[in-house]
Fold this protein.
Amino acid sequence: MSVYCDVALPVPLDRAFTYELGGLEAEVGARVMVPFGGQRLVGVVVGLHDVAPGDDVEVKRVQQVMDEAALLPGELMELGKWVAAYYCAPLGEVLRGMMPLTAEVRRQWVYKIGEQGRKVLYEGAAKGSSRRSKLSVEDQNREYSVLNYLESGEAGKTATIRSATGANKALLDAMAKKRWLVREPLAEVRDARRVEMLAVLVGATEAESSHLRDDEAAVKMGHPAAEVGGKRLPKLNENQLAVMAELAGCGGRELVRELRGRMSARGIPDSTLGTLVKRGLVRLEETAQAFHVTGLQQEGKKFAHEHVLNEAQTEALGTIVAAMEKGGFRPHLLYGITGSGKTAVYVAAMQRALVAGKSALLLVPEIGLTPGTAAQMVAAFGGEVALLHSQLTPDERAEQWHRIRRGEARVVIGTRSAVFAPMPDLGLILVDEEHDGSYKQEETPRYHGRDVAVMRAKLLGCTVVLGSATPSLESWQNAERGRYARVEILARVEARPLPKVEMIDMREEFRETGQEQLFSRRLIEETQATIDRGEQVVILINRRGYSFVVMCRSCGEKLECENCAISLTYHKGGEEHSLNGEARVGQRLECHYCGYRRTVPKACPKCQSEHLYYLGAGSQQGEERLQELFPGARIGRMDRDTVRSRGDMERLLGKLQSGEINLLVGTQMIAKGHDIHGVTLVGVVGADFALGLPDFRAAERVFQLLTQVSGRAGRGELPGKVLVQTYQPDHYVNQFAREHDYTGFAARELYFRRAMRYPPFSVLANVIIQSERLEEVLEWSTKLGRWLQQRKLEGVRVLGPAAAPNSRLKRIYRYHLVLKADRRDVLGAAIREMLVVVDREEIPRRAILVDVDPMHLM
């Protein structure tokens, strides 16, 4: 048995910490609770040994081993170490993200009496408690009660102290501020299983339960035949009899919440069940609470018989299945145009994996925005499906994680963090919409779910499939180089045609009308005609709110967030409600980065002019304008102000699917994977403004958005049409989008990327230096910039330091350095050497954010 263990803790330090086991047994990959920095943290064992640290190092003991066996198998431990090394992230923070089990640790505060508090207690006793205080006599008495209660020196939990003395938390915190008490954090293990109570007839066999159900009247009259477990039932009143009979009708076992619900409907009080428990006729048992995916099950009913594959789908499936049967690592890029039925191929491939005794993992960018995909999986695999995503409660997430680990769920659907799901016998990994930026994590560890999926498949030696109608240029280039096998589906299901895409030149529109309009005359005419035919319209306006800039006409001052260097977005008051009827805040200015809100001023805060000007149009203004133009239309809006949960999304899509909504306006949320057969017209407003952003991926993002939203049209029996309003109709992005020519766009964009040495022809890292104090950011970024210039790292080009495009977010000032290299090992070595300098210069590690393979440089 090992004497010491190395533990990776969720702290921003690139090292493990050695603890003494003290006779406890632990395995690599198990969780332990250890003291660290005056608190108790949960870490993961990454090594066991008998080598004591140096004599000058104090070795603390492990306080608790939380797991009898390793929670993370060797394959996932190896993957975690790769993520930590590749993305330059602390291993402890990586492993914490791989085990979403925060519900199993209860964190609270405990209080101990301090030296000052002990002095006050003894002095008060000697002087008869005649001290002066602004507190009431009652609160003074509570303070002394607390000090008396804690006099022994033992720590007391908040709830225990409050119960014993009547002191509230504010009083305890005030005593800690006066140093009468010492406040310490406490972490304890808790059982995160979700359980509920089950009512069971005592001693009832199945035959007796049936007999009791059938002879309700006989039981009421005390008939000799009314027996359970060989004992004659005592005389029951009418309510008790009804509960017994109801339980008998359920086979002698029923969930208490279900039983009480039915009894309440019949006017029977809850106390009746308690009486039966006291009399020994019914017992209560704990049972695991079922995880319900009711919404997805309802959504999935329509997909139950939609998996007959056409020739192109069958050929694609054959390629994937052949790779699975052959075994070994071989990534595939599934390039299928919008509406080609990629999801049906996913389902069929996962079925083949299950038949072969393997499990299958499907990653989706945002489960709240792709309910159709998740619903199809639930319809196909039922109880074998587990979900992992951020909208689960911590207890639900822990429950699903353990189900997966035990092998009870062989099909897992989830967002990026699900790539770490502890799946036994994983044989197939699928990444849907692999181009989507949502797969990139924006906090430490800043991993990309798609790339981690590919590495996991490599470590396991299994098949991985990346699917998209608009693949990322990194994946496309990997296929061009032969690193990925490319599988193509170039025809829509049932040979439906791709929608016709037309460009509307808004420059010409202005010349002819003399006015700047949100919607062109052509889009208005086509929308009216489509609604008149009983068809549906989708209009994309890729901005939230009403107007995204508020400016003073007199002095030119823009109203900005007090926490961020970002213009506030104007949200107009009135009809802003979620789909479940929950009212939103009315007229306001809001920051979409930090959530700061303020009322709309009547005058400019700088010059007091009343001439405030609202620039730009968002989805809320679009909805208002459409209501004016089409008063008879049934209009819905899809953005972050109306869709706050998966339930909101499901309700909105249900209304669209049923025809209750025939005109939908929204942000890019409307472009993500929705399959609405009644939509025949798509309008795109102002999407190409993003072409002017200082980001080398701007053109790729705009092309992907135009192609994806265009794909929402013509998915039913009727052909579709797309109208794109643009000020740059001749831009190559718009030209290729009009022709549905992804390969042409990819060739043109890759030509530019190669010339400028941008990914995929180089590798990047964005190093952000941040602090609440601007002078600290300037000092630290200057030190790093000077070192990088003097060091002259071979093969690495350094851009900056400079203010980040978003130079202040959430009261944090931000500067950045961009490191560019031709080889990944050279870039990684440069970053690691730079982090050594960070430590040597005593720059706090939390002030340095390293983003390897950044999706944007903002």
